[in-house]
């Protein structure tokens, strides 16, 4: 991912938090010479060897997984808040741009089977059911329902590289930086407010 130095995020804890909060990503690989992508939750974890991994699963009917066997190199893309930045918000002439936060994770993928599949499903469901009024647990599902696990391909991705971009107008002076925050709040969309809040965390 092309990222000018001023926008590179190398704060490991911040990146980890971002991945945990924005875990619905895009898994990209090459299958039979064709680029494939699937939108799925990809959860950050640590394996038994203490290595950082992502885990997830896709439908067995999705041909993308066939490529995991021939080429284990994959890319996972995660997007955070983003918003248009108007040049009218500056005190000088400039060009339009876009503020955004994104993380690319590169790694080696391997298919997992057996009890490891159930464990990965338990962790996934527990994470997203924790705020439910009546949380569902994998352990409570019937054998008939759990038979559906035969229709998925579960995997782990050993992370080899992370590239993180946090482009939030760091190249502006304090006056223009604060004005961009004010204008983003006036736009008042979920995305513009989220970017404004990120900018407030990192004052110039």
UniProtKB/TrEMBL annotation:
<dbReference type="InterPro" id="IPR012349">
    <property type="entry name" value="Split_barrel_FMN-bd"/>
</dbReference>
<dbReference type="Pfam" id="PF04299">
    <property type="entry name" value="FMN_bind_2"/>
</dbReference>
<protein>
    <submittedName>
        <fullName>FMN-binding negative transcriptional regulator</fullName>
    </submittedName>
</protein>
<dbReference type="InterPro" id="IPR007396">
    <property type="entry name" value="TR_PAI2-type"/>
</dbReference>
